[in-house]
């Protein structure tokens, strides 16, 4: 294993650091072809123009990629999108519109619940499915009409990292492509989105360089029993993913909330023993997030804020700030996934857990 690991201590660490490359590899075909339907397979030109909606189905981290995609698909493509947890969807009498594209997201392509949910969607009347998958010729892409392979390379750490960020760029590509098909993306906007993709690996590299500062936070977290993650809009799913990573590998209880929902429950939990992580880049909801943060401070909660330079936060009593790369527009969730991965990784190291093989969890869940 040490040969494969090179300079890294764990596969998870290696995979976190491989993200600029994994993203460049995944984006390469898009930069070459533009947001072209053929990126999704031979049948795409025949199928994509007919679609009137999207239903995303996945588990775990892949499900959170789906939640992020909903924002992109509805705002960029102007298409209705719902996101389903596979193990829930397959056991309810779900309403199906044959014109809605089923999109499964799976790193392994073998997750049983996702595979069964795909079959169930077909039984319910969905006609077409797109698989976003990291493993070529695995079960789920084989059962799908359309496929987009992420090019993250083998992911060995049980907790998904590079598969997640490459799934995000695949889904962003889908959103822009659908937007083009529907005449909602101008040539100028398309060029802008391509530019955003082109600059993404560089911004992710910047985020990786924050490791020493994030490690200092993680050492504080390691002594805590609970943590709360907050975000809004596009960054709410990143808060969810941050909480999931922390739970999975450090065994610290963590939950995530959309910050506007604080006052409907979790605010009752806030005190000085509960660190509150906030994903707060300069987007349209920043002012709202700032007032949510004041609600936390007023209850004695300690804030750990990931904010870009344009967010204009400064450190103060009980407010710690790490500056993420300059705001990168709609791809900002991809960049902000990095610091929460690193936070979980170092909290786990500080607690001495088995980072690559957390207790009770499996990389690929092929049983129910
Ligand atoms: C397991 C892994 C997670 C992963 C989930 C879905 O729970 O530990 O990291 O997100 O399965 O896996 P998939 O291969 O379908 O993306």
From TrEMBL:
<feature type="active site" description="For Fru-6P isomerization activity">
    <location>
        <position position="363"/>
    </location>
</feature>
<feature type="domain" description="SIS">
    <location>
        <begin position="217"/>
        <end position="358"/>
    </location>
</feature>
<keyword id="KW-0808">Transferase</keyword>
<keyword id="KW-0677">Repeat</keyword>
<keyword id="KW-0963">Cytoplasm</keyword>
<dbReference type="GO" id="GO:0004360">
    <property type="term" value="F:glutamine-fructose-6-phosphate transaminase (isomerizing) activity"/>
</dbReference>
<protein>
    <recommendedName>
        <fullName>Glutamine--fructose-6-phosphate aminotransferase [isomerizing]</fullName>
        <ecNumber>2.6.1.16</ecNumber>
    </recommendedName>
</protein>
<keyword id="KW-0315">Glutamine amidotransferase</keyword>
<comment type="function">
    <text>Catalyzes the first step in hexosamine metabolism, converting fructose-6P into glucosamine-6P using glutamine as a nitrogen source.</text>
</comment>
<feature type="domain" description="SIS">
    <location>
        <begin position="43"/>
        <end position="184"/>
    </location>
</feature>
<comment type="subunit">
    <text>Homodimer.</text>
</comment>
<keyword id="KW-0032">Aminotransferase</keyword>
